[in-house]
Design brief:
About 40% of the residues lie in helices and about 20% in strands. By secondary structure, it is of the alpha+beta class. It is elongated, with a radius of gyration of 28 Å. Helix 1 packs antiparallel against helix 5, helix 5 packs parallel to helix 9 and helix 12 crosses helix 15. Strands 1-5-6-11-10-9-7-8 form an eight-stranded mixed beta sheet. It has a five-stranded mixed beta sheet with strand order 13-12-14-15-16, with helices on both faces. The protein has a three-stranded antiparallel beta sheet with strand order 2-4-3. The protein folds into two domains: about 260 residues, 2-Layer Sandwich (BirA Bifunctional Protein, domain 2); about 90 residues, Rossmann fold (3-Layer(aba) Sandwich), CATH 3.40.50. Bound molecules: adenosine monophosphate. Adenosine monophosphate (AMP) binds next to strand 6, strand 10, strand 11 and helix 11.
């Protein structure tokens, strides 16, 4: 490789097997969403920065440190979307969807961008699938979304995943609790790391996400938000749990699960496959009843989740469960008569038009090499055309499983292949 070769970026490259698996994964997600009344939508890749800073919050990691920002010719500050939720709420508010039957259920999939240290499972360009139900504060909807997310993992054959849930109460619960938490942090300030001290004023909840062992010990005994939420939020959480319990969904209540974005309220959840390593979170979600107001809309409840397609794919790969690509080739054309190539390639395209999946040798292989290639790609049939067959304007069609061979006139070849395919 020459010195000026541009190496692959730190992303999960979508090579053929993975790309095929990704489509299979997305097809599953689509089928599951549509089966539950969620309709596909799409949102812009770049948005005004304010859409994210006003919702997820300046103090959140995603907005404060990880957004890709740029200024356009109109001096607007734009951001590559780091996630979908705010855009989907804006879609709902901006298109009068509150007049439709509530909740409005939508899903989407696409690239998201975050400036983060790249490692396995953590990329600067990654793919999320996302589902949201906007317009209902019924706890049944929180449970419906958790169940939908798990149904996808289950349909993909993912095993050993863990669901953690928590409640972080309503907006009004937050400040009184944060005051209690700050007092606690102040009392233990000598035993927590620099990052927590820095976040003390701005976003002390982040302390629960610390990776610093001594700080983790301190946070294990910290006052938990779930003990400081309103009666209404407590009842909501109990109801969500009863909807999960009735479905037989297994979960752990994790009082330290606060999630990094400001807009969350009440229910939060995360799903992980711990064996994935440092980036084991494969998806997370929550309720965001205050989000609409933060972008100038009327109070509108909502709940949803996002899941990282790359991480789910890595987990499937590790578990040996990557959806297999549909590689079956119906017919491999082994053409040994040079004069026959143009006519046979034209027939090959006609067969493709008729729905027969076929390929031809394009590497100038000799007879043996072409037959080997037909075997290797698992072709159901091989169409052989040497000088003798070409002289008769015919070919031999060999059934690769039985070894049976018949001569077929070229003008009947496409029909033959279509019928043979069944
Ligand atoms: P979040 O919006 O941070 O809760 O992210 C939802 C899901 O997106 C996570 O559980 C991950 O599966 C995935 N995800 C988030 N950030 C990244 C990233 N930088 N690279 C790959 N996947 C990510």
């Amino acid at each position: 490789m020459s010195d000026d070769f541009i190496p692959p970026r730190g992303t999960l490259d979508w090579l053929p097997a993975r790309q095929a698996a990704r489509h299979a994964m997305l097809d599953r997600f689509r089928a599951i969403c549509e089966g539950s009344g969620y309709a596909e939508v799409a949102t812009p890749v770049f948005e005004e920065k304010a859409l994210f800073s006003r919702t997820a919050g300046e103090s959140s990691e995603v907005v404060g440190k990880e957004m890709y920002l740029f200024e356009d010719q109109g001096e607007r500050v734009l951001a590559l979307r780091p996630e979908f939720t705010a855009s989907l709420m804006r879609l709902y508010l901006g298109n009068g969807m509150s007049r439709e039957a509530q909740p409005v259920r939508v899903w989407c999939a696409g690239s998201c961008y975050r400036y983060a240290a790249v490692q396995r499972g953590r990329y600067r360009e990654f793919t999320q699938v996302d589902a949201e139900a906007i317009g209902s504060d019924d706890p049944a909807v929180d449970a419906e979304l958790i169940a939908l997310q798990l149904r996808w993992y289950d349909a993909l054959g993912l095993e050993g995943i863990e669901l953690r849930i928590n409640t972080i109460g309503d907006k009004g619960d937050r400040e009184p609790y944060l005051a209690v938490l700050r007092d606690y942090l102040d009392a233990h300030i000598d035993h927590v790391d620099e990052e927590i001290r820095r976040q003390r004023d701005l976003n002390p909840l982040r302390a629960f996400d610390t990776k610093h062992p001594e700080s983790q010990k301190v946070m294990a005994d910290a006052p938990k938000i779930a003990d400081h939420v309103s009666e209404a939020a407590r009842e909501h959480f109990a109801a969500v749990r009863s909807f999960l319990d009735a479905r037989g969904i297994v979960y752990t209540v994790d009082p330290t699960l606060v999630r990094g974005l400001d807009y969350y309220s009440r229910t939060t959840w995360e799903v992980a496959w711990p064996e994935l390593g440092a980036q084991s979170g494969i998806g997370g979600g929550g309720r965001y009843d205050g989000l609409a107001e933060s972008i100038g809309g009327p109070a509108t409840p909502g709940v949803g989740f996002a899941s990282g397609v790359e991480r789910v794919l890595l987990a499937l790969e590790d578990q040996g469960r990557l959806p297999a690509p549909a590689t079956r080739v119906d017919a491999f054309f082994a053409i040994f008569a040079d004069d026959a190539r143009p006519a046979l390639h034209a027939l090959l395209d006609q067969a493709r038009d008729a729905g027969v999946r076929c390929e031809a040798d394009l590497a100038g292989r000799a007879v043996k090499g072409q037959m080997k290639q037909a075997d290797r790609i698992g072709a159901a049939r091989t169409v052989v055309c040497g000088d003798d067959e070409w002289a008769r304007r015919a070919c031999l069609v060999r059934d690769m499983a039985s070894g049976e061979q018949v001569e077929v006139p070229l003008d009947g070849l496409v029909e033959f292949l279509v019928n043979a395919k069944g």
